[in-house]
Amino acid sequence: MRIRRFALTDLPGVMRVERASFGAAGHSSTTFLGHALRDRKHSFVAEDEQGTVVGYTLVRMNLGWLSARRGGITSIAVDPRQRRRGTGGALMARALEYLAEEGVDEADLEVEVNNVAAQSLYEAFGFRRSHLLPNYYGPNCDGMRMVVDVGRANQTRTRDAARAKRAADGRGVRAARRD
Ligand SMILES: CC(C)(COP(=O)(O)OP(=O)(O)OC[C@H]1O[C@@H](n2cnc3c(N)ncnc32)[C@H](O)[C@@H]1OP(=O)(O)O)[C@@H](O)C(=O)NCCC(=O)NCCS
Predict the structure, then answer these.
(1) Which residues contact 118 (CB under 8 A, 6 or more apart)?
(2) Is 168 helix (H, G, I), strand (E, B) or coil?
């Protein structure tokens, strides 16, 4: 498995992961097309040994007031058949590495309050709960904002990457690498 930048030709594979992960509530192909054309730099895919897309993440950059550079994770998903193998962690590690390269100090994201898997992933990277977002995902479907100090997240990531590598050695999955 390796992590690389999102290319236009990844669109069908990314949409497959999106539909399998979020169903009709997922992003449209137009959203991903926009990222592929405009913000390719901010988007990453995970591909397996056969070159099949098994996950993706979209990163956002917000230029704040004064000098503060802020960013966040717009979305992350892994093919349901490929989960719990370190792919989500590898994508998150690359996203945070990219945000650090871009000089972002603090990053945030939104997650459904009931999404235990995603919250566990985020907490493993040092994200902490910031505040509740009532009805963020629709009526009676609350969200939560989580934030991370990108510098601290990278330290966490280093430990996580070492753990992922140990797991990969044991499971025959090559450690993820940037493009
Ligand atoms: C969240 C998601 C991206 C994680 O991808 P993944 O490839 O399974 O993640 P990893 O294998 O790298 O797991 C990394 C860590 O995340 C946590 N985690 C992942 N899935 C978990 C689950 N089902 N339950 C509890 N913790 C979980 C664990 O801490 C895990 O480390 P461990 O395996 O050593 O225990 C994946 O579950 C997914 O695509 N979910 C649907 C889409 C989604 O909800 N996206 C987030 C929207 S905000």
Answers:
(1) 76, 111, 112
(2) helix
Ligand 1 centroid, distance to 50 Cα (angstroms): 22
Nearest CA to ligand 1 atom 27: 117
**Residue pLDDT, tens place only, 21-59:** 999 889 898 988 887 777 778 899 999 999 999 999 999
Cβ neighbour number for residue 2 with a 10 Å cutoff: 16
Q: Where are the beta strands (DSSP E) in 28-105?
A: 43-47, 53-63, 69-78
- Tell me which residues have their CB closer than 6 angstroms to ligand 1: 21, 76-78, 83-89, 111, 115-118, 120-121, 124
The domain segmentation of the chain, as residue ranges, is: 2-171
Q: Give the closest residue (by CA) to ligand 1 atom 17.
A: 121
Whether pTM exceeds 0.70:
yes
The CATH number of the structural domain formed by 2-171 is 3.40.630.30
